[in-house]
Amino acid sequence: MKKLISDNNEKRKLLTKENEIYFDKLLVYIRAHLLLSERQSEEVLTEILDHLLLAQGEGKTASDVFGSNPKVYAEEIVEALPKEKKGNLLTFGVEILCDIIGWFIIIGAIGRYFTKSDQIYLYSSIINVVAVVAIGSGLLYVILTQLKKGAFEEKMSKRTVVKSGVLGVVTFGLFITILYLTDELGPLVNITWFTQLGAGSALLLISYLMKRDRTKSY
C-alpha cells in the first residue's frame, strides 16, 4: 500500500499544472472517505493517473477525458468503490485511539516532570482521556468533512476560514473547561512522570506496529 501511494505521488509530478489541479481534487475527495477500501481507492487513483498521463501525451486535458466537472466524476467513483472491511476499520480505529491517548499521556508526563508531581487524580485523568478522544474524533470528522467540501473550491472562502478559526477556539475552550471542571476528582494515585512517559510511548509503539501490519496486509 505504501508503495502504491508513493508511486501515485511520483506520477503526479509528470502532470501538467492544469491536469495536476484536476487530479488533486479527485485525490483529496477520494482519500477523505476513510470508510472506503483504502487499497481499491488507491488502485482507482492509479488507473485514473495512468489514463490521464496517456491522454496528456496525446495533447488532451483532464477535462477532455473525465469531464469538466471533477466533483460529479469524483462522486461517481466514490459511489462505485466498496467499503473497507470492518476488521480493517476496527484496527484503524484502535490505531488512531492509541495515537491520541499516547500523545496525551506523553504531554501530561512532560508537564508533570516540570511540576515535580508524582500523583494524579484517577477520575480526573480518566475523564480527561475520554474528553481528548471524543474531541479528537470530532475534529477528525470535521476536518474530513471540510476536505470533501473544499476539494473542488479554487481557494478557501472567508466563511470557511472564519468557521475553522471559531472551531479551533471553541474546541480549545471546551477542553480547558473540562480540565477545570474535572480537576481533583477521585482518589490520588502515585505514578511517576517517567512511568507515565513509558505508558504513552508504549501506546505510540503499538499504534506504529498496528499501522505497519495493516499496510503490509494490503
Could you explain how this protein is built, in words?
By secondary structure, this protein is mostly helical. The chain folds into two domains: 2-80, no CATH class; 86-216, no CATH class. 78% of the residues lie in helices and 3% in strands. The protein is built from nine helices and two strands; from the N terminus they run ααααααβααβα. It has helices at residues 2-12, 17-31, 38-57, 62-66, 70-80, 86-115, 122-150, 158-181, 193-216; strands at 119-121, 188-190. The chain has a two-stranded antiparallel ribbon with strand order 1-2. α1 (2-12) packs parallel to α3, α2 packs antiparallel against α3 (38-57) and α2 (17-31) packs parallel to α5. The longest helix is centred in the middle third of the chain and has 30 residues, at 86-115. The protein is elongated and about 70 Å long. It starts with a helix and ends with a helix.
